[in-house]
Amino acid sequence: MSPDRNRLHLAIQKSGRLSEQSRDLLKGAGLKLSQSGKNHLAARAENFPLDLMLVRDDDIPTFVADGVCELGIVGQNVLEEYALGQPERRIEELLRLGFGRCSLRIAGPESADEFALDRLQGQRIATSYPRLLGRFLEQRGIDAEVVTMRGAVELAPRLGIAGYICDLVSTGATLEANGLTALADVFDSEAVLIRTRRPIDGAHAEKADALLTRIEGVIATAESKYIVLNAPEERLAEISAILPGAEAPTVVPLIGRPGHVAVQAVCQESVFWETLERLKAAGASAILVMPIEKMML
Ligand code: ATP
Ligand code: MG
Fold first, then answer.
1. Are 51 and 42 in contact (CB under 8 A)?
2. Per-residue pLDDT tens for 62-73?
3. So what's the pLDDT on residue 2?
4. Ligand 1: does its nearest atom lie under 6 Å from the Cβ of 294?
5. How many angstroms separate the alpha carbon of residue 77 from the centre of ligand 2?
6. Which family does it belong to (predicted)?
7. For residue 225, is pLDDT > 80?
């Protein structure tokens, strides 16, 4: 699998918690992906000069730092753990992607109200993220022994390997199933788009920017709504101020209704029922909230 230098390369997780949403994001950006290569280590965008490298998530920072892939999608937890072990930052975090949210937490076999960080002094803590945990402990002046495990960290207390663990948690169900409770937050994470800091040559750089713009559009669209409403002209300022994340709404006169206008705006933050109630209370009527299919900022 030697990379085709005429194409851009993006590393994503081959199979796991980030793979499906990484692919969906790229599809949302208009890429038509097809499997290529016998062992499915790569995929190709048919309508954009981009090859996907399908790898283990732990390898993604290395690929991007070395410039083998110009871009990658990876969890901030994996990225930061990698970066803490490198003398120089060779990766740039471009964009938070809004999926793969989880937290690296210290957990143990006791209840949260019995716990204080000081109880970790002199203890053994098992984790797959020794650098993130090490930094956390050091910043708080806690002297504990970090035991590095590749997987099945949640079994460590039962096996007598460590008294506590530090592992990724999203719902807490795995911890619970192992008789453990989350006790302290070490690092909050979500999937991010990353880019190599190695120089990307001209044509490739342009392609990378074009892809970034499209992906930004997909992320912005996920939250954004198009709002249309009627408003009394004299309350326009008040109503505009309520519209979440809207810049410079369009205001159009309403034929046959002097003193009233139609307002149209793209809201780049979530629009809740409560927002609509506030708009109505400020005199707005005929309020429509519509999804946006595509957007380029
Ligand atoms: P690989 O074979 O690629 O090394 P993995 O087992 O290391 O896979 P996954 O469990 O698929 O990794 O998790 C990938 C990423 O998904 C994590 O690094 C993290 O950023 C994110 N993630 C989101 N929720 C969770 C969770 N509850 N537990 C673990 N990871 C999560
Ligand atoms: Mg992994």
1. yes
2. 999 999 999 999
3. 62
4. no
5. 10
6. Belongs to the ATP phosphoribosyltransferase family. Long subfamily.
7. yes
* ipTM of this predicted structure: 0.97
Nearest atom of ligand 1 to the alpha carbon of 151? 6
Rounded to two decimals, the pTM is: 0.87
Ligand 2 midpoint to CA 219 (Å) = 25
Task: For residue 291, give the nearest of 214, 218, 245, 227 by alpha carbon.
Answer: 227
* Domains annotated on the chain, with CATH: 8-99+191-221 (3.40.190.10), 102-189 (3.40.190.10), 224-291 (3.30.70.120)
| 79/114: higher pLDDT | 79
In ligand 1, which atom is closest to the CA atom of 19? 11
Residue 70 Cβ < 6 Å to ligand 1: no
Asked if 71 and 52 touch (Cβ cutoff 8 Å), the reply is no
Whether 104 lines ligand 1, by a CB cut-off of 6 Å, is: no
If you write DSSP's letter for every residue of 121-182 in order, what string do you get?
TT-EEEES-HHHHHHHHHHTT---EEEE-SS-GGGHHHHTS-SEEEEEESSSHHHHHTT-EE
DSSP class of 268: -
Give me the mean pLDDT over the 68-85 stretch.
Answer: 97
Residue 297 has pLDDT above 80, yes or no: no
What per-residue confidence (pLDDT) applies to 36? Answer: 66
Q: For residue 295, what are its two tokens? A: 């957007």
The model's pLDDT over 276-293, given as tens digits with 9 standing for 90+, comes to 999 999 999 999 999 998
Q: φ and ψ at 229, to 5 degrees? A: -155, 165
Ligand 1 atom index nearest CA of 170: 27
128 pocket-lining for ligand 1 (C-beta < 6 Å): no
> The dihedral of CA 104, 106, 112, 116: what is its sign?
negative
